[in-house]
Amino acid sequence: MDREIVIVGRSNGKLIVRGLTNQLKRLGLGTYSEAFNSYVLDVSELAYLIYKGMARVRDDEGPLDLRKLFMKYSRGRSDWIKFTVLLDLRERGRKARAGFSPNALIYEKGSTKIMVFVAEENAPLEARNIIEWIEIATRKGYEPVLAVVDAHGDVTYYSIFKLRPEDLEVKT
Fold it and tell me: What is the pTM assigned to this prediction?
């Protein structure tokens, strides 16, 4: 059985690939695009497949290992951090996949849909960006979770929510 995935293009920061369609569907990675008649994956999802030895990945210039994949297709450090969290969630039995934004992953836990905001320890985060992200996640029906990756690659998860002063009950 051939275990090869070929990168054939890019779309909105994601990679259009051919190969291993059944495996991608079974693993819940990427999304199928009828427009491209192919699967579209995030670089973190392809990195996961390479790291776990589930697929060989290549493009028109030849085979890609993790280093080459990130050097050629990464949009920034956040892609490596996202891969770290994706790997951690999958090792914990969660069927996580890339989310709707460059720093998001999504998965389901029972009937609960969870959207994970991926951040790096000691990297600045603007409160308004987090608040906006929480609103988007809840509007789409997801429970928001913050994943912080430290310098050693360890991931800590925090449930987050937006609480306004008027939502607090005053006890007298």
Answer: 0.88
